């Protein structure tokens, strides 16, 4: 009833202004066409052109169907109008009930996409951390290897020094033996000098022994340092291995989360497809309903035309009968006139 009164008032208003009732629709379509032309002048994109044309055609179809629906509603009786409006309201409610979960699913998809992006960023960060840790591990290993090489070189040098000192000790011992032999063989006048030489040699031997002890201590210290460095290397390697294992576990967890999110995305996409199919089915039902209403309207119009034709035929038949009656009356009048003439002439 509300639609009927609104449509009647709008048609009265347009009739008062001597304008057609669909002028507003024509203006809207012209505005849309102008906007489409402006967009086409600004952008030379075929896909955009096709999309805009498709949208325009859909809008035209929707407006035409709406017009037909309004006309059908106006042609129906009051109870039929109420039933039709109730049916349309139910279909609109179904559409809304389907659109709401669609919107919710779209929001969920956006959230899942954001989570995927965040997880991908975390994966990239973890990979970068892994690379940095590997680089640090390599650097530490290189440094420790250099230290080990240096310590080994020092050990080699110390060993060479030890060998030299041992050779000197052997030489000094040989000299001592020679001096002792000379002391035994020489005379008494030169024994003092030989004793002094022996003392000097003994001092040298003591010094060499001290140097040997120092070198041995240095060797021990270097060995201890080597052991400490090896222990440090082992600890660092263990720590880095633990860190790598932790990072690998985190990567595995993130990959599992990504897989779960992808599965959820696929499920949501399937739900979206199902809802879209339902929407398409409802739209098809609406179109079928509108087509049925249009067919009913056409049938009513055809019936009206048939009734008009029948009325015209009846009118024609009546006219023919009237004409026949008139002709009969004329014939009767002529006969009367002829008879009157014969009667008057006979008398």
Automatic annotation (TrEMBL):
<feature type="transmembrane region" description="Helical">
    <location>
        <begin position="111"/>
        <end position="132"/>
    </location>
</feature>
<feature type="transmembrane region" description="Helical">
    <location>
        <begin position="21"/>
        <end position="40"/>
    </location>
</feature>
<feature type="transmembrane region" description="Helical">
    <location>
        <begin position="46"/>
        <end position="71"/>
    </location>
</feature>
<feature type="transmembrane region" description="Helical">
    <location>
        <begin position="236"/>
        <end position="269"/>
    </location>
</feature>
<keyword id="KW-0812">Transmembrane</keyword>
<protein>
    <recommendedName>
        <fullName>ABC transmembrane type-1 domain-containing protein</fullName>
    </recommendedName>
</protein>
<feature type="transmembrane region" description="Helical">
    <location>
        <begin position="165"/>
        <end position="185"/>
    </location>
</feature>
<feature type="transmembrane region" description="Helical">
    <location>
        <begin position="139"/>
        <end position="159"/>
    </location>
</feature>
<feature type="domain" description="ABC transmembrane type-1">
    <location>
        <begin position="157"/>
        <end position="333"/>
    </location>
</feature>
<keyword id="KW-1133">Transmembrane helix</keyword>
<feature type="transmembrane region" description="Helical">
    <location>
        <begin position="276"/>
        <end position="309"/>
    </location>
</feature>
<dbReference type="InterPro" id="IPR000515">
    <property type="entry name" value="MetI-like"/>
</dbReference>
<feature type="transmembrane region" description="Helical">
    <location>
        <begin position="83"/>
        <end position="105"/>
    </location>
</feature>
<feature type="transmembrane region" description="Helical">
    <location>
        <begin position="197"/>
        <end position="230"/>
    </location>
</feature>
<dbReference type="GO" id="GO:0016020">
    <property type="term" value="C:membrane"/>
</dbReference>
<feature type="transmembrane region" description="Helical">
    <location>
        <begin position="315"/>
        <end position="339"/>
    </location>
</feature>
<keyword id="KW-0472">Membrane</keyword>
<dbReference type="GO" id="GO:0055085">
    <property type="term" value="P:transmembrane transport"/>
</dbReference>
């Amino acid at each position: 009833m509300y639609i009927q009164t609104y449509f009647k008032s709008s048609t009265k208003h347009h009739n008062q202004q001597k304008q057609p009732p669909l002028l507003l629709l024509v203006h809207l379509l012209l505005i849309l066409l102008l906007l489409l032309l402006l967009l086409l002048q600004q952008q030379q994109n075929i896909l955009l052109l096709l999309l805009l044309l498709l949208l325009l055609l859909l809008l035209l179809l929707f407006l035409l169907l709406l017009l037909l629906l309004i006309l059908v509603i106006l042609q129906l009786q009051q109870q039929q109008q109420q039933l039709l409006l109730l049916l349309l309201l139910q279909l609109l409610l179904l559409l809304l009930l389907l659109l709401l979960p669609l919107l919710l699913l779209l929001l969920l998809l956006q959230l899942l996409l954001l989570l995927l992006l965040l997880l991908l960023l975390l994966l990239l960060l973890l990979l970068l951390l892994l690379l940095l840790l590997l680089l640090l591990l390599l650097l530490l290993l290189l440094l420790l290897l250099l230290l080990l090489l240096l310590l080994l070189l020092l050990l080699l040098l110390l060993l060479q020094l030890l060998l030299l000192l041992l050779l000197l000790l052997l030489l000094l011992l040989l000299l001592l033996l020679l001096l002792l032999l000379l002391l035994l063989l020489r005379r008494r006048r030169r024994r003092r000098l030989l004793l002094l030489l022996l003392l000097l040699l003994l001092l040298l031997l003591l010094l060499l022994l001290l140097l040997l002890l120092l070198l041995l201590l240095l060797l021990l210290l270097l060995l201890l340092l080597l052991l400490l460095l090896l222990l440090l290397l082992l600890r660092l390697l263990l720590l880095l291995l633990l860190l790598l294992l932790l990072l690998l576990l985190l990567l595995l967890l993130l990959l599992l989360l990504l897989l779960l999110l992808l599965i959820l995305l696929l499920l949501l996409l399937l739900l979206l497809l199902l809802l879209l199919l339902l929407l398409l089915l409802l739209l098809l039902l609406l179109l079928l309903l509108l087509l049925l209403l249009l067919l009913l309207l056409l049938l009513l119009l055809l019936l009206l035309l048939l009734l008009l034709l029948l009325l015209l035929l009846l009118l024609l038949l009546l006219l023919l009968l009237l004409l026949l009656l008139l002709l009969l009356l004329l014939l009767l009048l002529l006969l009367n006139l002829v008879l009157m003439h014969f009667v008057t002439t006979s008398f």
